[in-house]
Amino acid sequence: MLSLTLLCLLIPALSFAQDGSISGPTSSSDAAGYSCNASACKLPKCNCASTSPPGGLDPADVPQFLVYTADDAVQSYTIDSVNQFLAQRMNPNGCTPRMTYYTSLNYTNYTLVTDWFVAGNEIADHTMTHVGSPPNDEIDGNLIALNALAGIPLSSIIGFRAPYLNYTADTLSHLAASGFTYDSSATSSIPVTENGTDAFWPYTLDYGMANDCLNVDGLCKGKPKLPGFWEVPMYAMFDSLGIDGPHLMDPWLDPADGSSTVDDNATLTYMQNTFLAHYNGNRQPFGLYTHPIHTATTYPGVSASNSTIDMINSFLDWAQEHEGVWIVSTEQLLAWVQNPVPLSELDSFTPLKCSVPEINQSICDGIPDNEQGLPDLCDFPDFPFYTCYGCPVEEPSPDNPNPPQQNASNGQEPRYRLPANCSTPWWDPVKGTCLCSGASCQYHDISRPIGPNGANLTGGDTDRASSGIPSPTASFLSFNGNGASASFPAGTWPAIMVGFFGIVGGLYLIRI
Ligand SMILES: [Zn+2]
To answer: Number of folded domains in the chain?
Structure first.
């Protein structure tokens, strides 16, 4: 049983290894046919595709952003994998770097998503079941399920990356219509040092796409026009073959320089050379786009190379020795592009500040130190997961991303899902109360047209009656433990869970 579970987890994780490889340019200026009226297109709502920094800044005043992303399921071994590169680091303002996790839901442990979000990282959409050219319900269902089972506010899930980077013009149109702020599936495939480079700073689609014109139908020549919707290109690295030697995701898996075998030293060399080309030029962002499974050391049966792990840390050590280098999430990068303050003012730039909420009560709030065994194990055969927000009666799926909550066992009350007026760090899903009411945590989630037939849904359910927002279909409804009263005696619930975790502890330790 156990080994079968492991096998099920391993196969899909490894099958994603081919995500996002390119072999040559995916655009050209001819194919792009891009023109943008810079005098009409102004920040923060509009930005022309340009290789020059936003806001007319001199590159010397521009930070060198190093965008760090991870894709696919969130599991303890993937979080461990990311932490071995970021947890020990600091940005120039003394804060631990944040990153973006493009999350797909099969094999995802929802409680870890909650934790990762509360720690300040960005949670973004990578479809529910990891499909390219994604149908709308794969995109929208991900928001609904992450809101319900990981307690992520709808207003905080602003970005999308297509599985296999396989997207269409319709994907972009749907993202814009569903209230996303950006997509990050397109490739910048020509070195910044080449004439005609497509290494554009993030831009809005007021004048259409300027990347991937040769690869994706219906892009470029002014299409698709999606005012205010951003593309954050993924910037390839290039080995000694230059434009003919691109590397995009998990570059440490690729042989370099025309060789047939992987060589960490060769990878390090071209990563450094590409970084310097950005740093000494117009400082377009530099990206590390990762699948954490490939550098996991805590997953049975996967043996990541220590040499590769050391090489990646050596690269980051080296990059951080350069002045003005900041490791950021996509969301943080975009916040700066929309409001490009000079490098000298970055230490006090709010989106880059540390955000550690102060919670001194023991709630199931996503802060591991305070959880005290409160997550439920939802023991579905395909992929068991934990959640603080109550197990659904069946696995979430694109057809039903928000199944009703299971009847609680052991005399427990149903959990309260995140409401629209309280953000994740403050919400106690056991008692159904918000632990912060001061000005520092005032909050209201937004509605997005992601329900059946485009119906507006708002974050959580508890606020629905007073907000006047139309209710979704019945299968989406019964989510918030309607009418549940939090009458469980204090302390009883953790005691039950200690016993419960004793039973499942073995399973937990092998990193489901
Ligand atoms: Zn993926």
So the answer is: 1
